[in-house]
Predict the structure.
Amino acid sequence: MHGNPCVKRIRALGPGAGKSAPARRGAIETLLFCALAFTFSSSALAQTPKRPVPDYDGRGPAKGSPGDIALWPLRILLSPLYFVSEYLLRRPLAAMMQAAERHDLPENLYDFFAFGPDHKIGWVPVALVEFGFNPSVGVWGFWNDAFTKKNDLFLHVEVWPDDWFAESISDRWRLDDRDALEVHVKGSKRPDQVFYGIGPNSAQFSQSRFTEAYFDASAQFESYVWRRTRFQVQGGLRKVDLGPGEYGSDPSLDVEAKTGVFPIPFGFNRGYLAPYGRALAAFDTRKRGAIGPGFRLQAQAEGGGDVEHAPASGWIRWGGEARGFVDLNEHGRVLSLAAATEFADPVGDEPIPFTELVMLGGDNWMHGYFPGRLVDRSMAVAQLQYTWPVAPWLDGTIEGTLGNVFGEHLDGFDAKLLRVSAAIGLTTSTASDLPVQLVLGFGTDTIDRGATINSFRLSLGVPRAF
């Protein structure tokens, strides 16, 4: 208040402000000055709009839109999971982020793990801990604009001493904003892959292990033609060897087969060398890089054949997916419904190696089961999924899936043979090449057996990318 120019001028008049003509003239000028100043300042204040409150957590303003109202039944149903997400994850993460930013931790870590001009070269330590499997530790590295502009190199290595190893290297050329060409070489050997038998009725108690060692080299071209509508073509060569495995007290596949719970599947202790080709086409109405409503129709097919043995075995694996997306409040809360099917048909007189059959579990649809839990000639699933933002770089997902594997072209399909898989998870939303995921899920037996929960899955780290 003491810095106000009007106050200063009035005080400067002194006690004799109205006793002489010059003093009266000075008083009048001061009053006019203050009146004009007050008028213009009031007008400016009236015309200056208030700054809108920033949307700090990305949740949007509270409103009663139909989509927001439709969320309430889901909120009530999932309230226990909400409290876990809100009070055990989001708020502690927000507090840690604020503390880290105050101490410049993100910038220091970025400078440590990324270096070179414009930080285009870097590395990150990675790990994967998955209940029921050997853990792994490793490193993921990148080099953007390697040797030339728009050429990116990626390296991913993970190991567990004396148990398993996996590595992959990719060279991606970004031809333009829509097209990319990628060469990918990967290999892995691990003794803890699971097998329960083939068919919709495979039993959880027959869990066994086998060793899978493979080498895969491929080239892929991908093109976006409109929004997220894209197509891919890929060709490569795959060498696979399959043999007895081990993990904990689980028996090897061949040992469990001797008990009569399932026959030894084709390809075990045989392996194969297979050139293959793959094509995918997806029509997607959503914009690239944006979250919103829309729908996606996708079809894919892969053909391959064993050239190591005679007579050779060959296969064609093909299928499709339809998914619709609804943005419930225009702030990343997306509800989607999907249906998908896939088939595997033999080419020639020999059966299909069991690792080239249709599989469910792990990262493939039914996330509450171990990878490769369900195996057969075809599958059908329906899935309801809800995704929401937990933090600026972290998304939460909860989903329920109904489905199972069946015989040739869904032969033997029966609603009583369907299984239920449910999972809740967190995944980073800022690095598509290196997502970090937390998955907690369960799977059930078939409906005709009471749909009792008999499978549990917990996974934390960089998901299997080999």
